[in-house]
From TrEMBL:
Coiled-coil residues: none
Residue ranges crossing the lipid bilayer per the database entry: 33-51, 71-94, 100-117, 124-140, 152-176, 188-206, 212-231, 243-265, 277-300
Name of the protein in its database record: Permease of the drug/metabolite transporter (DMT) superfamily
One Pfam family named in its UniProt record: EamA
Signal peptide range: none
Source taxon at top rank: Bacteria
Native species: Desulfovibrio piger
Length: 305
């Protein structure tokens, strides 16, 4: 379609912008509400939206087999745990550190796809994994000695766990997408996650939020709908690898928004002072994640002589 490249690029950038801003909103919320309650509400809002769309635009409702049902449960558990672990890590780490650590997810998804789905492991992707790991070391260079402290260690452990379960969700979804539409998968995941987390949540805590925190909560809820909606639409308008590569710039959006927030409301969004090596590490992490996403597109097979 004419203009599809521009549409795909803008939607991918919108996704990166919303995902980049999310941990800043969560950081301000977590001082008053626990992570499980926030995730539970976000899932209920997303479930209401996706099920509402399904009533207006009904899709294929072919009965699912036992294997598909099991994979749906695994995918729902993976994404629910990812949301809880990531939201919890924001309480212990800076917003930018959480986003940088989250880039371990694509690495784990790549490795899982190789070993579980038998997908090819391209040399350019192997190099990109090394680049990403080097970037992580550079970004956390001044904080490696702080790992012995409780908060830093807990935050990084939660961030790594979030990346691990996200990779599990991604592998399950890859298999499901062979036979089930994305909308049907997400409808089940959001509803199942909301039902599972409801008994563990404390919705009364929302009544104690101030106006700014209520705004952050509203943003966190609509973030799921807008970001994932923009991401899905971008995939339909542009090459999947290009969309994924643009979305890997999310940590850079977080760094920029963190700096902007500290200028407007320094008491609410304090700026984390990063050294030159840490900033360089952030860029290197993004480049590594881009290489992983674009690997299949950039890979040039050897010609037979």
């Amino acid at each position: 379609m004419p203009g599809s490249n521009a549409t795909g690029l803008l939607l991918a950038l919108l996704t990166a912008l919303f995902w980049g801003a999310l941990p800043l909103a969560l950081k301000h919320l977590l001082s008053s509400v626990d992570a499980i309650s926030i995730v539970c509400l976000r899932f209920w809002v997303a479930a209401a939206w996706t099920w509402g769309l399904s009533c207006r635009y009904p899709g294929n409702s072919t009965p699912l087999g036992r294997r598909e049902k099991l994979l749906l449960v695994l995918a729902a558990a993976g994404l629910s745990c990812n949301f809880v672990f990531f939201n919890s890590s924001v309480a212990y780490l800076s917003a930018s550190a959480c986003q940088i650590l989250a880039q371990a997810g694509p690495v784990l998804l790549l490795l899982g796809s190789v070993f579980v789905l038998r997908e090819p492991f391209l040399p350019i992707q192997g190099s990109s994994v090394i680049i990403l790991l080097v970037g992580l070391l550079l970004f956390f260079n001044t904080r490696l000695l702080e790992l012995a402290s409780g908060d830093m260690l807990i935050g990084m452990a939660l961030g790594i766990m979030a990346a691990v379960v996200w990779a599990g969700y991604g592998i399950a979804q890859k298999i499901l997408l062979r036979t089930i539409s994305p909308g049907r998968i997400m409808r089940f995941i959001y509803l199942a996650g909301a039902l599972a987390l409801t008994p563990l949540s404390s919705p009364s805590a929302f009544l104690e939020l101030d106006p700014l925190q209520m705004g952050c909560l509203l943003f966190a809820c609509i973030n799921t709908i807008i970001a994932y909606g923009a991401f899905s639409t971008a995939m339909n308008n542009w090459h999947a690898a290009k969309v994924s590569a643009v979305v890997t710039t999310t940590p850079l959006f977080t760094l920029g928004l963190e700096a902007l927030g500290s200028l407007v409301l320094p008491q609410v969004f304090p700026l984390e002072h990063l050294g030159l090596l840490s900033l360089l590490g952030a860029v290197v992490v993004v480049l590594g994640a881009m290489g992983i996403a674009l690997g299949p597109m950039l890979h040039l097979p050897h010609k037979r002589s």
